[in-house]
# Entry
Amino acid sequence: MEEKDKILDIKDLDVSFRTSAGTVHALRGVNIDLYRGETVAIVGESGSGKSVSMKAAMGLLASNAVVNGGQILFRYKNEAGEIEEADILKKDKKWIRRNINGRHMAMVFQDPMTSLDPTMQIGKQITEGIIAHLGVSKKEAEERAKALLEEVGITDAEKRMRNYPHQLSGGMRQRVVIAIALSCDPDLLICDEPTTALDVTIQTMILNLILKVQKERGISVIYITHDLGVVAKVADYVNVMYAGKIVEVGNVNEVFYEPAHPYTWGLLSAMPDLETEDSRLYTIPGSPPNLLHEPKGDAFAARNEYALAIDEKEHPPMFKITETHSAATWLLDPRAPKVEMPEELKRRIERMRKEAE
Amino acid sequence: MAADYSAEPILKVENLSQYFKVSRDFTVKAVDGVSFEIYPGEVYGLVGESGSGKSTIGRAVIRLYTPTAGKVSFKGREISGKLTNEARDELRTRMMMIFQDPMASLNPRKTVGDIIGEGLDIHKMYATKEERKEKIDNILKKVGLSPEHYNRYPHQFSGGQRQRVGIARALIMNPDLIIADECISALDVSIQAQVVNLLKDIQEETGSAYLFIAHDLSMVKYISDRIGVLHLGHLLETGTTDEIFANPVHPYTRSLISAIPLPNPEVEKKRVSETYDYYTSGIDYNVGSNHLIEGTHYVFGTDEEIARWTGKAGA
Amino acid sequence: MTDQDFVLLKDRNIETDTNYASMPYWRGVFKRFFAKKRSVVGLVIVAAILVLALLGPVLSGYTYREITSVVDEETGKEVVARGISPRIPWLHKLLGKEDYTDRFADKTFLFGTDDLGRDLWTRTWYGARVSLLIAFVTIIIDVIIGMTFGLTSGYFGGAVDGTMQRFVEVANSVPRLVIVSVLAIFMPKGIGLVIVALLLTEWIGMSKIARAEMLKIKELEYIFASRTLGAGNFGIIFNDVLPNTVGPIITQVMFSIPTAIFTEAFLSFVGVGIMLPQCSVGSLIEDGFNNITTLPYQIVPPIIVLALLMLGFNFIGDGLREALAPKLEDM
# Structure
């Protein structure tokens, strides 16, 4: 039964980009699973490959990208309600655009202004996709658009349909983008930093909205974000990415309360919670590697204060910690010395657990 | 060095207003009657959402803009009107700014050495070329870069490294006040923490005061001694970090604090945050006055509003 | 893999951030420029014409105003090499297995001679040299005038900008032909007139680009940074803004050169430009046009040179524009 529910299965995805400066090895063997109705967050710094992997999944890789290997299996419900499977990497762009993008897989981007057409009324922008993908009449599409706007919490839907994007506030625009994404009843919603451009108070509202429609419609959601607060709020599973690889994966409680990878330690403690009193934040020194020059061994070793000698020779495999939780660090090898997470983080997690009770 | 509240404030902002004329009959009031002061060695955090006027305040204080009204004094000298030569020298050498965008804040055609040395060059603050090089090398080391980076160009660095160059440029002048304008918001989380640590280290070492402008409340809380909450150009609430976080009074402050995303899944999943909408709240920022709540904690509002917010109405 | 591999690495200095990213800017520009076939073709064309313009007249053994003639031994009269079509004696012999039989049988005229007996190869490259020289001189002066005007106008903004832009609009609205006609009344025809005519019109485009760049750059944070450090207006314009306008300005120069060459050619063609016996690409085309029925080959070389120059500079301009301001290579 489990196999049947898997909606997205990215296996050993390996992608490089030809740039004028040389070849950038952006993804170096990425594995991501997503089951129907669940939410996965991909966390990482800029340049870690989190956006690239999702662009690959949408079939939107730039023309200078070279896929060196891997599979992206997407299983969606077709018109007849049956499950169909497609390897996105093997399909041509035209087919993907017609059958997948906007139809079964929809995306919400960081800046709503870039995904809305400033010269078109928002009603038209919503109905356009519905008519193209579902082949319904204009009148029916308009009915649906109105219902969608109401669903995403826009009052006065009828009036708003005739507005142009610039007449709406940032939060409203992002609601419209979500309405467009939902317009064809997708199986999978990919949100790329959906709230980064918004103010904190609006951020929570948008996240709650996505959570609500997800629950009602039973769709799967992938969040690409660097904000661990967002992850904690919305995700079931977390993938931590670093330099084109997944370094830690687990359910959200495992990753936040029992992080195993030193990079995750650094990420968690870099963001002060409201009780942090330490005079310094524990953080990761240095800056992320430039994948123009692919590092030998573990890409994180150069910034890792817990690096082992072997890190400079060989990339660690994924060590399984529990059924759902694994991490790619040699510290989990039985031969490695016992290393504990930094004191600051330990105290922090204790505090978090206490609050959670 | 801890803040010295017995001393004269290093920066005093009184009723600062900054308007921008967009067209003949439309003026944007970016900042409207804001007052606060910063003491030597203190970190004052200014929070607010985009469009709240927080960056405008920073720029008006350092005279990138000419304030429309109000008075700004730096080390006891007025710097808001026409600048005397002395006041200008003081302002340009003792008050520095760290900018938001690590890509746009460094001149792409200048070497890192020349960027950092710009202040020294303008104010002729060295006797020999060797002295200049030595000063810059020392600063590079202090901000976690290497003297080898002296001859490199900004685009050869990552965002975090560039921000360090920007900090070095301010730091080399050994300023009394540093205005940090959203200086971490364009950076990745782990790099944000590095920069915040660096700012804290510098402060301990040099005792300079900061005006820390940001929208990220958790960072502001972590680094600031006192906080001012800004909304639509009005300063709504100010006080020590503890006063504000333990007892937020203004509904806007309350909604801001309740909206901070926390990296704690169990708590975050259950949390309901307070909402606030100025236009439907019935609050008018143009009427009211500052009310003392306790200590240094002031809230802006009418008597009736304050009574309601503090739960003293009818009690 | 041994147990020794599983020890913590100690005494590493990971606090100093020594990781740096991309290659130097200019190396990137070169790489991007040469990655495009079109820009390389443009560069080769322009380089070839430059070399020929410098060396062509020297190599031919003739000068641009020299009339080739021989004295006929029988009559004692001077015979001028009028209207001889292109010839290379050794090539003719190789292909036709026979020598030329006229009096100039041993002479090489790669492009032939004109109706006065002057070597067209020499005149073509000499003309190209004159045209390029005029273009370069005027463009350099235009860059100086245009940038000073545009940068000042953009930097100070407000009323200064308003006044200066009104002036530009007025200057821009006078057609070039009117300017030339008026100039022709007050000035002798010739190189001087061509240069003044170009100066009066070409600086406007340059100033517009400089102003647009200034408006963009002056709102960037590094300009604010210089101001908070106390830099003066002069320092900001020349140290901070000017170096950052180099890219667009070079591109604009590449597009202005062909315009200048073409304008010069046009003015010479209509007879107010280069005066005989001087020549430029334009005056050569005029000559060729006048003789088109009798000496049809005469018009071909200058037209090809003119076309190649315009094409070459446009290709280079295009290539530079893309190389200097790369669209983000997205990933």
The longest strand of chain C covers residues 69-71. The longest helix of chain C spans residues 120-156.
